[in-house]
């Protein structure tokens, strides 16, 4: 028997649609039956809609005009300059800087990474843990060292990014 067929010759989708329609008709006739049968668990077959909407191939339905990309020259020049300055800084670090400067640069790298990951991202954007006042102050100072905008704005933009991910509205 094919994997998508039932014993009666119906496909699983057809049987799901017919059982959902029967359940809807029964719940209209006897509304307390629905409340009695409710377990609070959402099974896969419970999520299927009456019209079979979850098994539709939506890739073929998604059509959008190609978006014309706009070059932001200010950002292109700024990023180009920053990368050239980083190469020059690495050259100076290897040829003429003291070892203490390298240690300080590495410490600031770690501190700024903590400010973004533990502070702006995990604490304020996702609220994945609670922190007391001294740690929040320390993380906001570390976030400032990273120079990636204020922690409040970083968290706001990151939440918008998650909301509109994979769309043109993604910042």
TrEMBL record:
Cofactor: Fe(2+)
GO biological process: unsaturated fatty acid biosynthetic process
InterPro entries (UniProt xref): Acyl-CoA_DS (IPR015876)
GO cellular component: endoplasmic reticulum membrane
UniProt-recorded Gene Ontology molecular function terms: iron ion binding; stearoyl-CoA 9-desaturase activity
Listed CDD domains: Delta9-FADS-like
Keyword Cell division applies: no
Transmembrane annotation, as ranges: 71-91, 103-125
Subcellular localization: Membrane
UniProt keyword annotations, A-Z: Fatty acid biosynthesis, Fatty acid metabolism, Lipid biosynthesis, Lipid metabolism, Membrane, Oxidoreductase, Transmembrane, Transmembrane helix
UniProt membrane topology term: Multi-pass membrane protein
Family assignment from sequence similarity: Belongs to the fatty acid desaturase type 1 family.
Domains: entry comment: The histidine box domains are involved in binding the catalytic metal ions.
PANTHER family noted in UniProt: ACYL-COA DESATURASE, DESATURASE 1, ISOFORM A-RELATED
Name of this chain's protein: Fatty acid desaturase
Organism: Drosophila silvestris (Fruit fly)
């Amino acid at each position: 028997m094919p994997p998508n067929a039932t014993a009666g010759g119906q496909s699983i989708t057809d049987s799901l649609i017919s059982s959902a329609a029967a359940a809807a008709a029964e719940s209209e006739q006897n509304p307390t039956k629905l409340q009695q049968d409710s377990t609070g668990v959402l099974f896969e077959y419970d999520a299927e809609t009456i019209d079979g909407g979850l098994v539709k191939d939506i890739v073929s339905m998604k059509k959008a005009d190609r978006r014309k990309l706009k070059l932001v020259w200010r950002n292109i020049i700024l990023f180009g300059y920053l990368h050239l300055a980083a190469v020059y800084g690495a050259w100076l670090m290897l040829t003429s800087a003291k070892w203490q400067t390298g240690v300080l640069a590495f410490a600031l790298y770690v501190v700024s990474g903590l400010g973004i990951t533990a502070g702006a991202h995990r604490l304020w954007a996702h609220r994945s843990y609670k922190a007391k006042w001294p740690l929040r102050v320390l993380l906001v100072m570390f976030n400032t060292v990273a120079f990636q905008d204020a922690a409040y704005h970083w968290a706001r933009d990151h939440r918008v990014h998650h909301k509109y991910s994979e769309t043109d509205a993604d910042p």
